[in-house]
């Protein structure tokens, strides 16, 4: 029997390195291993990555040649910034006259605080004329004399005129230092923010370059021919060469790996992903099949780094219970891990014999109100996981599952102390912990305008069962724990798509300029190994900020999933009806392609117009798009330009806020082309034509339009 081709995802954490192998065809999990992260080995984390890979190949019976995709996520960049373990940056400002005043102010970045008592090490030098090679080299000598290990060149308006920054780098090249220009990191205006983003990127550049070289050499030595990819902070992956240029993109990539797993494995199209560990829960949003991203805050300042919008709550599976006045007063933020105590629910009933409740101060300065149990087997912490097991909320086979009798025995002494029964005490514990998470979830649902009737809560991480089931119960939202939740992050790394984002500030952007940004993003992911045939590009034009943004995604190989498990017509109809909250008999097929079916119904409301809610369901029976009121029409590639021009013309709104074209999505082949980010009808139609390019004239096209008020 032939071994399957596999996709490998490796997640390098602060303590452990997790690796998984996923069948490249069925996307099913084939194997998983955990090894200690090798921070102190002479090869650094690269040693642990190779060790994990070796064990994984042995476990699955695979050979290095069977690997079709290999990617890893790392906390190294994040930890370097948090710990202040960075390189000294030599910043060379460029300009004369008023420009010189602006760039000289950039020397203040040396005051940025990395960690308590540790500031960003920065040496600043100035050049008036970037073409003056002798002056540039004197500036390089100056910053090198102050310890600079990496160089950044920055000049006002370099986004439009990059020649000055490039001239400085060319003159500095003989010194052999890693270098970057501010315009290479972001093409957005704002000298101060652009340079700050470039400087922080440069501060971690030498360390990340060394790691990249070691990992690359180790993987090659192991016989792997698949190119090595690295997890980005926006839920995609990038080629190793791109990471060498912009290592800052790996900052905050840990939570991004988890939500990528939820997006790709669980096929979430609308919902909230909660990744719960022992101490905290990271909360992020999937809206209309895409992860929610925003410009990240780094070192207390906003940056031009587009990262997952993740919000962290100090409640996890190991969070300890706090008591006072005969009641549960809170949960966390201290966990059993920090207190150095085992979970009470994982002790045996014999170890819990003669148990008495006491309170402790886990760390100096903490309140002495954290509940512990002193019993025959020693001292144990009462945690969220204990309460979830006592209530039967942890499913069979889950990473956090324990013996139900032990869980009830763990809660019983606390219940007696509170004057109640085990079930009530466990419920109060979960109520206190989950309330903190619910506050953040409710805020994110509001911020992203998620439809609570269709949004789903998905739990990942080893502590998922301590938070997500109870949150679903108390909020009324649908909730579930992800398959293989304890390794959802490396699964996300293994399944992630190559991603690139291009942003430009273009006042009054023309069709040609918008299409140029789109083409640049598409070329970037193809250059990093994405199969050109499967690249999808989402373009957004923000008329308030004049920002044109293109996000391109694609797989490194065309995925041909096993069709044996695909949903039939009845299953897809039921999925649509459940999402529409109506009887299947009231749901109709409106249109479809080989990969997607569009279902709709009607809602009649007194004194208000009839609405036509629509759901797009894929061949796996997953709802990929929700529309509260949409128009659907089928045409062909040949007829589409004329049909779309008519539909867009009929659906465009005009008012005090200006022209607002409809939110348009096209079903083409296996794809949903999302063109909803364009408000101007003419660029919208131009982008639609670009999506139709190189397709057969008789190929069906389904247009789904939502009128904007």
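^ Assign residues to that structure.
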């Amino acid at each position: 029997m032939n071994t399957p081709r596999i996709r490998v995802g490796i997640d390098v954490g602060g303590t452990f390195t997790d690796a998984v192998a996923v069948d490249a065809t069925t996307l099913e999990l084939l194997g998983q291993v955990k090894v200690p992260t090798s921070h102190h080995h002479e090869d650094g984390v690269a040693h642990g990555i190779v060790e994990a890979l070796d064990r994984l190949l042995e476990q699955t019976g695979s050979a290095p040649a069977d690997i079709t995709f290999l990617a890893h996520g790392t906390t190294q960049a994040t930890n370097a910034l948090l710990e202040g373990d960075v390189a000294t940056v030599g910043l060379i400002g460029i300009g004369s006259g008023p420009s010189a005043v602006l760039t000289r102010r950039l020397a203040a970045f040396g005051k940025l605080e990395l960690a308590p008592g540790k500031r960003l090490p920065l040496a600043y030098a100035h050049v008036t004329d970037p073409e003056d090679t002798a002056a540039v080299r004197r500036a390089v000598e100056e910053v090198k004399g102050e310890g600079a290990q990496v160089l950044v060149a920055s000049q006002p308006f370099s986004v439009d005129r990059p020649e000055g920054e490039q001239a400085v780098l060319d003159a500095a090249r003989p010194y052999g230092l890693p270098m970057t220009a501010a315009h290479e990191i972001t093409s957005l205006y704002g000298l101060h923010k652009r340079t700050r983003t470039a400087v922080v990127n440069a501060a971690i550049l030498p360390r990340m370059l060394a790691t990249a070289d070691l990992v690359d050499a180790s993987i090659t030595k192991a016989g792997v021919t698949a190119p090595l990819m690295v997890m980005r902070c926006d839920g995609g992956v990038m080629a190793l060469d791109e990471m060498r240029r912009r290592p800052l993109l790996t900052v905050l990539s840990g939570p991004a790996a988890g939500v990528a797993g939820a997006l790709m494995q669980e096929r979430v199209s609308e919902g909230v992903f909660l990744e719960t560990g022992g101490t905290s829960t990271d909360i992020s949003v999937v809206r209309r099949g895409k992860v929610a991203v925003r410009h990240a805050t780094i070192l207390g300042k906003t940056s031009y780094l587009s990262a997952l919008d993740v919000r962290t709550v100090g409640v996890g599976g190991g969070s300890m219970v706090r008591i006072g006045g005969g009641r549960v007063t809170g949960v966390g933020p201290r966990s059993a891990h920090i207190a150095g105590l085992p979970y009470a629910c994982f002790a045996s009933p014999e170890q819990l014999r003669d148990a008495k409740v006491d309170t402790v101060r886990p760390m100096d300065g903490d309140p002495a109100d954290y509940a512990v149990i002193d019993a025959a087997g020693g001292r144990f912490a009462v945690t969220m996981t204990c309460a979830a097991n006592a209530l039967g909320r942890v499913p069979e086979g889950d990473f956090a599952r324990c013996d139900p009798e032990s869980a009830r025995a763990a809660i019983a002494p606390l219940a007696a102390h509170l004057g109640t029964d085990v079930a009530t005490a466990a419920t109060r514990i979960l109520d206190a912990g989950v309330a903190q998470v619910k506050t953040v979830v409710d805020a994110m649902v509001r911020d992203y305008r998620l439809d609570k009737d269709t949004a789903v809560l998905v739990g990942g991480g080893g502590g998922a069962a301590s938070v997500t089931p109870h949150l679903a119960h108390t909020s009324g939202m649908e909730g579930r724990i992800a398959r293989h939740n304890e390794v959802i992050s490396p699964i996300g790394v293994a399944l992630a798509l190559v991603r690139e984002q291009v942003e430009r500030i273009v006042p009054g952007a023309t069709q040609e300029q918008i299409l140029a940004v789109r083409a640049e993003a598409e070329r970037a992911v193809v250059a990093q190994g994405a199969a050109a045939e499967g690249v999808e590009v989402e373009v957004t034009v923000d008329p308030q900020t004049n920002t044109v943004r293109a996000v391109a995604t694609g797989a490194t190989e065309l995925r041909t999933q096993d069709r044996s498990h695909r949903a039939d017509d009845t299953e897809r109809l039921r999925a649509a009806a459940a999402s529409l909250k109506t009887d299947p008999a009231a749901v109709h097929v409106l249109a479809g392609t080989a990969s997607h079916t569009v279902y709709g119904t009607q809602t009649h409301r007194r004194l208000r117009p009839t609405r036509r809610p629509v759901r797009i369901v894929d061949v796996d029976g997953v709802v990929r798009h929700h529309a509260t009121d949409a128009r659907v029409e089928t045409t062909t590639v040949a007829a589409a330009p004329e049909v779309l021009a008519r539909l867009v013309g009929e659906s465009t709104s005009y008012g005090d806020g200006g022209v607002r074209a409809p939110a348009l999505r096209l079903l083409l082949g296996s794809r949903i082309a999302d063109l909803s980010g364009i408000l101007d009808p003419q660029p919208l139609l131009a982008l639609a034509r670009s999506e139709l390019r190189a397709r057969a004239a008789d190929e069906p096209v389904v247009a789904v339009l939502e009128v904007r008020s």
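The mean pLDDT is 88.
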